[in-house]
Write a structure and sequence with these properties.
By secondary structure, the chain is mainly beta. It has a single domain, classed as Nucleoside Triphosphate Pyrophosphohydrolase (Alpha-Beta Complex), CATH 3.90.79.10. The chain contains one helix and seven strands; from the N terminus they run E-E-E-E-H-E-E-E. The longest helix has 13 residues. It is globular, with a radius of gyration of 13 Å.
């Protein structure tokens, strides 16, 4: 079975974490509330993926990251296994904004 690599980026504000509501028509993890993230390209460094995807999905430039963990998960939408690498975004420039990449974003306690 196919193993897909992706990163998740964790933003904290006080005692809240940023979550995204994924679109129902997504080809993976459709319709769920999740930590934002994105797919890893060939020969792409995980840290670079987190920075690139945060810019694309939330319109912020991450300036400081810390690796948290890597976890394996089966996605019921795509029927693929994912190896998810999670990073804590400690510093960033700009204001986090919704984009067309997700249905909604919210700070959740």
């Amino acid at each position: 079975m196919k193993l897909v690599e992706a990163v998740g980026f964790i933003f904290l504000k006080g005692n809240k974490v940023l979550l995204e509501k994924r679109w129902e028509h997504e080809d993976n993890y459709a319709g769920i509330l999740a930590v934002p993230g994105g797919h890893v390209g060939k020969r792409e460094k995980l840290e670079n993926v987190a920075v690139r995807e945060a810019q694309e999905e939330l319109e912020v430039k991450v300036t400081e990251l810390e690796f948290v963990a890597s976890l394996k998960d089966f996605d019921k939408t795509s029927k693929h296994w994912y190896l998810l690498h999670y990073f804590l975004c400690k510093e960033w420039l700009g204001e986090i904004s919704e984009t067309t990449e997700q249905e909604a974003i919210k700070w959740q306690q």
